[in-house]
Structures are given as structure tokens and as C-alpha cells.
Design goal:
This protein is an alpha/beta fold and 287 residues long. It is built from 12 helices and 13 strands. The strands form 3 sheets. It has a 9-stranded mixed beta sheet, sandwiched between helices. It has a two-stranded antiparallel sheet with strand order 2-3.
Length: 287
């Protein structure tokens, strides 16, 4: 069955970016001239996704507004002859069919995914976390869908990690590293205990049986963790890793967000020359 639907959980409070996230969702902070969330939506659309559901909260209405039509603004742009800008904002609302559900309590990723059961139905579905941007020639989710279609399986996205990162990530333990078949996820192991150097990123393709496992898990520090349900499902269904071909940015961290802005700015023809000159002069002045 084709992967047509994607879930994007955006109910987190974004405390690492306070005070700006007191009034602006972290997913709406811009990478150059587009909000972070749009890069993730475009990855989904360019991977063949037709319907997107945001798991949001009462503080994230600006995300809903952003992907909705803005008739007054569109009319003003049309009347003033700013047709290029008009086309740009019209294209945002027509990217896909968008749906929203609110997570009333901060009960974790597992709880957020439980809320989408009716939307998903009996289909496989993708999950893309709002903190993760991947710059890749072939969209990250499209790479994962290829693995899903090859093995008819649940899929996790894997990235090769530096040793310094292993103790802070969920590390994949492989049954067969050549095929990518996974048998376990070890959370935040010591370097010497890590089963591999591959970490799981915030991208998943899951079969609908995950909802049965979500019903079985217990709260951990007040939250239901999606990983706990994945580990239960892993005992019943195959999971494979898709080794990421591309560059990953953790835009949920300040450094990752700044790095993404710098490197994406260098992709803009109108910015590249000025950016390179500035970086060169900055480096000289600091040397």
C-alpha cells in the first residue's frame, strides 16, 4: 500500500529558543526566507505525500494560518501588481491537503501519534519531526519510501554519528547491516556499549499496527514515548533502516539553526557572493 499520509508533530513548546518562542512557534522561525516547517512540508510533498496532519497546540495557530489562504493579502498583492509575490503565497496553501489536531496535554510523542489514529486509518504513514531538516538531492522521505516499497516494512532513518554524539542518541542495533534490518534501538548508550555508530533521526514510516502497541505502553516521566511502542512492534514486524544520503540539520538547537541559515543562504544566487565576502572578512578580522 502506498504511503500517502504524513504526520508532523509540532506541539512542543520550543523552550530552547525562549524568549522568542513565547509568541512565535519555533517551527515558524525562518531559514533564510522560509519558515522551518515549510522545508519539512516540501520534503513530504516532493516524496509523494498527499495529505499532511499537524499535531499542534493552542499556541501554534500561526502554523495553521501560514498554510491557509489569506484572501485580503492576496487581493492587495493582485491590485498592486505584485504578481510574483502573489503566486508565491498562493503556492504555499496549495502544497497539499492540510489537517490539524490539537494535543491538549504535553504527554509525549506517543500520545501525539495516538491522536492521529482515525486520520491514518489502515494505511502506512510517515512521521516527520519539526526539529529536523535534511538537505538532499533525493528527499529524505523519498529515500525511506523506496526502502518501504522494497521490503514492505516499517522504516527508520539512520545517520552515521560522530563518537561524541552516540551517548545522546537512540542507536540502532542491526540484525543484518548489509540489508539494513534492525533488531533493537539502544537509547543513549555509553560509547563502549553502542551496538553501532548509526543513530535514528526524526523520520519514520510506520504501519498502522503501531496504534495497538501505543495502547500498551506506560508513561515515562509523564510522557508516552513513541520509541517504546516501536520496540514492541519490532518484535512482531520487520524494521529496516534507510541510511541517509544527504546533510542533516538539527534546527531544534541554536547552533544547528544558525548553521542551517548560513549554509542555505549560500545556495541563494543573490546572497552567495555577499555571504562569502562577509565570511572571509569576518575570519580575517578574528584571526
Amino acid at each position: 500500500m502506498k504511503v500517502r499520509k504524513a504526520i508532523i508533530p509540532v506541539a512542543g513548546m520550543g523552550t530552547r529558543f525562549l524568549p522568542v518562542t513565547k509568541s512565535i512557534p519555533k517551527e515558524m522561525l525562518p531559514i533564510v526566507d522560509k519558515p522551518t516547517i515549510q522545508y519539512i512540508v516540501e520534503e513530504a510533498i516532493n516524496s509523494g505525500i498527499e495529505e499532511i496532519l499537524f499535531v499542534t497546540n493552542s499556541y501554534k495557530k500561526s502554523i495553521e494560518d501560514y498554510f491557509d489562504r489569506s484572501f485580503e493579502l492576496e487581493k492587495r498583492l493582485e491590485q498592486s501588481g505584485k504578481l510574483g509575490q502573489l503566486e508565491m503565497i498562493e503556492s504555499v496553501s496549495s502544497l497539499a491537503k492540510f489537517y490539524y489536531v490539537r494535543q491538549g496535554e504535553p504527554l509525549g510523542t506517543g500520545h501525539a501519534i495516538m491522536l492521529v489514529k482515525e486520520f491514518v486509518g489502515n494505511e502506512p504513514f510517515a512521521i516527520l519531526y519539526g526539529d529536523d531538516i535534511v538537505d538532499a538531492e533525493v528527499p529524505c522521505l523519498k529515500q525511506m519510501i523506496a526502502v518501504y516499497e522494497k521490503y514492505d516494512c516499517n522504516v527508520l532513518c539512520a545517520e552515521e554519528l560522530d563518537e561524541s554524539m552516540i551517548s545522546s542518541k537512540g542507536i540502532l542495533e542491526y540484525e543484518n547491516m548489509e540489508t539494513g534490518k534492525i533488531k533493537n534501538i539502544v537509547e543513549k548508550p555509553a560509547l563502549e556499549d553502542a551496538p553501532s555508530n548509526r543513530g535514528s533521526l526524526g523520520r519514520y514510516i510506520l504501519k498502522p499496527e503501531i496504534f495497538e502497541e501505543l495502547e500498551k505502553i506506560d508513561l515515562v516521566n509523564g510522557e508516552l514515548l513513541l520509541t517504546d511502542a516501536i520496540l514492541l512492534l519490532m518484535k512482531k514486524q520487520p524494521f529496516y533502516a534507510c541510511q541517509l544520503q544527504g546533510k542533516y540539520y538539527d534546527v531544534g538547537s541554536k547552533f544547528g539553526f544558525i548553521k542551517a541559515n548560513l549554509e542555505f543562504a549560500l545556495k541563494y544566487k543573490e546572497l552567495k557572493c555577499d555571504m562569502l565576502q562577509y565570511l572571509e572578512s569576518f575570519h580575517k578580522n578574528k584571526s
